[in-house]
Design brief:
The complex is a heterodimer of chains A (about 120) and B (about 120). With about 120 residues, chain A is mainly beta. Chain A is built from no helices and 12 strands. In chain A, the strands form 3 sheets. In chain A, strands 2, 5, 6, 10, 11 and 12 form a 6-stranded mixed sheet that branches. In chain A, a hairpin with a 6-residue loop joins strand 5 (about 30-40) and strand 6. Chain B is globular. With about 120 residues, chain B is mainly beta. Classes of the chains: A mainly beta (about 120), B mainly beta (about 120). Chains A and B meet through strand 6 and strand 11 of A and strand 4, strand 5 and strand 9 of B.
Amino acid sequence: AQTVTQSQPEMSVQEAETVTLSCTYDTSESDYYLFWYKQPPSRQMILVIRQEAYKQQNATENRFSVNFQKAAKSFSLKISDSQLGDAAMYFCAYRTTQGGSEKLVFGKGTKLTVNP
Amino acid sequence: NAGVMQNPRHLVRRRGQEARLRCSPMKGHSHVYWYRQLPEEGLKFMVYLQKENIIDESGMPKERFSAEFPKEGPSILRIQQVVRGDSAAYFCASSPNRRPSGANVLTFGAGSRLTVL
């Protein structure tokens, strides 16, 4: 079974600085999808960024980018120019492409604090 | 488009009572997923349903929990004889009608927080 590990329970960053959140995963599959979700205090799960494993190019969405290292099974999230609104729990998630399901496997999350 | 609607947002039950959580998927979506989030934990998959069918219930506890997604109306997650350990946030997510695909992205509701006294 696939597992997702986020080794940093908490991180903090100064406003306007850059922070990187770590994620590693374990799988025997060669094709899969990886996601970062943000969960603010409202608890709403918001998709931040998505990466297809067959794509070598790292995904980017405005201030958010990933460093996808397939061989190392690593998928870190970089937030540039951090803003107060970025404060939230961040969850890394894995999705198989097998079996016709879009089931996600989540890590335990990293709580990000942004200091003014 | 109202998004994925879950209700109630908060539900309090005493031990032994029943809890019913409802989820209306986004318009045009007929695939529904239920996840549970225990305190300080990530979301854990419970069940995947399509209209009138349970596709994958590998994450559902064997007893007291059931889910349905009828032809008409919302999906329901039902927990019978609740215990304190059932206290958690329960999230519903939906995806489009088309065949499951890596290109699809799940859209989540805001969750229902169940507290068992």
